[in-house]
Design a protein that fits this description.
Strand content of chain A: 5-15%
Largest sheet of chain A: 5 strands, antiparallel
CATH topology of chain B: OB fold (Dihydrolipoamide Acetyltransferase, E2P)
Structural class of chain A: alpha+beta
Number of domains of chain A: 3
Number of helices of chain A: 12
Structural class of chain B: mainly beta
Number of helices of chain B: 3
Strand order of the largest sheet of chain A: 2-1-5-4-3
Strand content of chain B: over 45%
CATH architecture of the largest domain in chain A: Orthogonal Bundle
Number of domains of chain B: 1
Helix content of chain A: over 70%
Oligomer: heterodimer
Radius of gyration of chain B: 15 Å
Shape of chain B: globular
CATH superfamily of chain B: CheA-289, Domain 4
Helix content of chain B: 10-25%
Radius of gyration of chain A: 70 Å
Chain lengths: ~550, ~150
């Protein structure tokens, strides 16, 4: 509703009505004259127009009715108009009062003060007051609902923004992870390809090894057979050498016997020589024979020694042969054992090569399948990467939208806060309540204490301050939860400032009404902030100061 | 080794003829006239309380025969183990009261002739002297003196 254009129209209508009411007496007189004239005129016309011989009672009846009407008009209508004219000043005064109250109510309504708007309508007629009050209540409820909803919208948007930011961050990380996984899968696919190639080569090599194992197994089998034959022959040689050794012992015994015989012969020859010597000349020839016998025995002994020496060498050779054949037999056994072990190992190797060949072929096949699967996974991962990237973009857009929604919610909140509602959520209501408490405090100290207490109960208020009209600020209270030491030091600079140059002071001093200043960046906390300020009056109702509170937007939306 | 020459004069030859035996490191020449028999080493039964030179008693021809160790008699250093030890049965003491005795030697070598002039005088007793035989110095023993000593 355009209050500025409507109120003058109402005032004009009321004045016109007042002027018309002042001419009521004249109009009543004119009406009475007209009734008399019309009655007489009717009587004359009836008299003239009546035919001769017509009865005269209709004319007389008309005349009598006309006289009765004139008399009735003079008795009832005229006095009514006279009374109405006498009550006219009282009505004008009442209309003026109503006009003032209506203007004041609309003025408060125009300023957004729905509380005072309702208060101002209490002097209006009951119906009008009820209608006005109902309209203000409806508007108040609407504004209250808008305030609540805007806070919820801002909070929800903030939460959505936070979640979307986290999701966007997570999606970015996920996208990076998907890229890494894709690269890893590509590397895995390449590796699988190499493995398949290597497995094929391994299968080929294993097949060759299996063939070689077959050949080796056959060769080792032949070698084992040959070694067994050699062992048999060595055993035969050993047996024969052993037999030779036995024979050599027999020869030794024979030699010992011959030696003994030779010794005996030697002794016998010596005894013969002794006997020959005892026989004197007769035994001379015998002594010669004895000497020959001794020589023979000596040669026999020398021959035996030669034979013994040869037999020693022969026996040594036989022993060496036996030892060699035993060692050869042992070595052949070892070779045979090793050859058999080698044959078993080659057989195992051949089987292992066969198994390896089969497994390598299976590995090659599996890795080829794995390679194909890896390619599909890589393709899928690329699609996933695109989806994740799109999702990340969407989440960033969502975050941006939520941010805009948050801003919009705050703007709506600020618009809604431009209404003064009888609600604890109405900041104008709050600051006026605080102003009333300050006005009720007797001295500066009590006012300061009250301000501290009030700021302490409002966690969304960064600063509360009372500035006088001369621009000084005697009272300043901090919210210690929102401002640190450095920020408080910054805030204290307000004592050195003439606040009359500040926008909030200019704004509130323009109409001396409770005012809400649009958001700005707090000089102290560097966060979004807005100010609500209201005049403070003394006991006589004179404005002496301005109370301002700086509202932290984040804290306020949390509330 | 100087073998026994066949001499015209049997007596003179007999007087210079010796049986050469080995006892330890020494070669000893026993007068052939005093030698009764050479036999394979007899089984000796030691006698309690006997001297070191007396190995014991053996049985020879059904009679007990004292056996002396020749190496100990001539104080010969011990030689290698004998492969064929012998016991030389000899007559000791003067001709009128000779006794038969066994001398244990490592081996009996041969019958040699030791000229009397080649014998370098010894102690005049059991060891008559030393004489070179076949490039080796042999100890010439006097078995009659051995009979007097025993």
């Amino acid at each position: 509703m355009d209050v500025d254009s409507t109120l003058p129209a109402v005032r004009s209508g009321m004045r016109v009505a007042s002027r018309q009411t002042g001419h009521h007496t004249e109009n009543a007189l004119i009406g009475w004259i007209l009734v008399v004239g019309l009655t007489l005129l009717g009587f004359v016309l009836l008299s003239v127009g009546s035919p001769a011989g017509a009865p005269g009672w209709p004319r007389l009846l008309f005349l009598a009715l006309g006289v009765a009407g004139v008399l009735a008009y003079g008795v009832w209508v005229f006095p009514y108009f006279r009374r109405l004219e006498r009550r006219l000043p009282e009505g004008e005064e009442r209309w003026a009062r109503l006009e003032g109250e209506l203007i004041a109510a609309f003025d408060q309504l125009g300023a957004g003060d729905l509380v005072r708007s309702i208060e101002k309508t209490r002097g209006l007629p009951e119906r009008l007051a009820k209608i006005s009050e109902a309209a203000s209540e409806s508007l108040s409820q609407l504004a209250q609902q808008i305030q609540d909803s805007s806070i919820e919208v801002a909070s929800a948007a903030d939460a959505v923004n936070e979640i979307a930011s986290e999701l966007a961050s997570g999606s970015s990380e996920q996208a990076a992870s998907v890229v890494e996984i894709t690269a890893a899968m590509e590397e895995l696919a390449r590796t699988a390809s190499q493995i398949a190639e290597n497995a094929s080569r391994q299968a080929e090599l294993a097949s060759r090894a299996e063939a070689s194992g077959d050949a080796g197994s056959a060769a080792v089998f032949e070698a084992v057979t040959g070694v067994e034959e050699v062992q048999k022959r060595i055993s035969a040689i050993a047996s024969r050498a052993d037999a030779l050794g036995t024979r050599s012992k027999e020869i030794y015994r024979v030699l010992d016997l011959i030696t003994e015989i030779a010794q005996e012969t030697h002794i016998l020859s010596l005894n013969a020589a002794i006997e020959a010597a005892a026989a004197g000349a007769d035994g001379r020839r015998f002594s010669v024979v004895a000497e020959e016998v001794r020589h023979l025995a000596q040669r026999s002994q020398e021959s035996v020694e030669s034979v013994r020496n040869l037999l020693d060498e022969f026996s040594g050779s036989i022993r060496a042969t036996i030892v060699a054949t035993e060692e050869g037999s042992k070595e052949a056994s070892r070779v045979l054992e090793r050859s058999r072990a080698a044959a078993e190992a080659i057989e195992d190797l051949r089987r292992a090569s066969g198994d390896t060949s089969r497994v390598a072929r299976q590995i090659s096949l599996a890795t080829q399948q794995q390679n194909a699967a890896s390619d599909e996974v890589v393709m899928t991962l690329r699609e996933v990467s695109l989806v994740v990237q799109r999702m990340t973009g969407g989440l960033k857009n969502l975050s941006s939208t939520a941010d805009r929604l948050n801003t919009l919610g705050l703007e709506i909140q600020l618009l809604a806060q431009s209404f003064h509602l009888a609600s604890p959520r109405s900041l104008k209501h709050l600051v006026e309540e605080w102003a009333r408490r300050l006005e009720a405090a007797p001295g500066e100290a009590e006012k300061g204490q009250a301000l501290d207490e009030m700021v302490a109960t409002a966690p969304f208020v960064e600063l509360g301050y009372v500035s006088r009209l001369d621009g000084t600020t005697p009272l300043l209270s901090f919210n210690k939860d929102l401002l640190n030491e450095r920020q408080r030091a910054l805030a204290n600079k307000v004592h050195e400032t003439d606040v009359r140059t500040r926008p909030w002071f200019k704004s509130v001093s323009r109409h001396w009404r409770t005012t809400l200043i649009p958001p700005y960046e707090s000089m102290q906390s560097s966060e979004a902030c807005f100010t609500v300020c209201t005049p403070v009056r003394d006991a006589a109702g004179t404005i002496t100061a301005v109370l301002g509170i700086d509202i932290n937007v984040t804290g306020w939306t949390r509330i | 080794m100087d073998t026994v020459p066949v001499e015209e004069n049997g007596k003179s030859r007999r007087e210079g003829t010796h049986l050469l035996v080995r006892a330890g490191e020494y070669a000893c020449a026993l007068p052939l006239a005093s030698v009764r028999r050479v036999v394979r080493a007899l089984t000796v039964h030691p006698l309690p309380g006997a001297t070191a030179e007396l190995e014991g008693l053996a049985e020879f021809g059904g009679e007990p025969l004292p056996v002396l160790n020749l190496g100990r008699l001539v104080h010969a250093p011990a030689g290698p183990n004998p492969t064929y030890p012998v016991t030389v049965v000899v007559w000791v003491g003067p001709a009128e009261a000779r006794e038969m005795l066994g001398l244990a030697a490592d081996s009996a070598l041969e019958v040699v002739h030791v000229p009397a002039g080649s014998v370098v005088a010894g102690d005049g007793g059991f060891l008559l002297g030393e004489a070179p035989v076949g490039g080796e110095v042999v100890r010439v023993l006097n078995l009659e003196a051995l009979g007097r000593a025993t």
